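Exam revision sheet. Question 4 asks you to relate a sequence to its structure. Input first:
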Amino acid sequence: PGRDSHPLVWASFQDAPWRELIRPLFEFQDVVSLAMDRVACIEAVSLFHPDLVEGRPNGPAHRRTIDVFAQWADRAAWVEPKDLVSSEVLFHHQVIGADGLGQLLDTAARYRDELRRVSATRSGRTMYNSDRLLNCCAALESFDRRRLGPGRRGFKKRIGACISLAGEPFARLFDDTQEWLDVLKQRRNHVAHHLESLEDADGFTDLLMADSTYLLFALCFLREASVPSTVFELVEKNRRVNWLRRQLSTLSATPNAR
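Answer key, structure tokens:
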């Protein structure tokens, strides 16, 4: 982890529309964003073609760039640059390795839409906690449908399947999985149907639910990528995860949520 910008070179050995050529870049961006628990910004994109070269009077020819001009949607708010430590990220390259990165990118290609929706909740644009919650819930439901098939299963069963896939790192966040599911369903339905709020703490509850569903998706994504167990050990040491673990102990659902 660090504060510097890094170039990414992506080689394609077949003809394809330019939009297809840069699609892996977005998948890589979302994987890095998930790892850092913040937006990985794209500063510039250039294409190269082996036949597009330019000679130099006193040196070898070099490839000319084809600049891609676009307004990149995911831009984090500017913050003071600093080096990131392991406890501030969910995972990093040292524990993933080159093979693990390849597995993550393969998984990103399969769950592109779901990963993009979850990554958007960490963007620098203003987003209400309730919107972040709905985004993560929708991504988890879609993730489960893509993984296990459409079927006719309700919200709690789909989220329950995701919890089973995530395993111990998620289960250790709270004492009662069913209680967490009750609160999640209650808040998701409340926000989706614009029901009147009578609880002063609903905004903070939406924050906890948004962050915990974000973490649930991250863990499921890592499970699907078959990353080593050391990655999950690192996730559990994350500062945000530790804070979330402490806060979730205060949750309770109203009786009609069950």
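Marking note for examiners. The CA atoms of residues 170 and 216 lie 7 Å apart.
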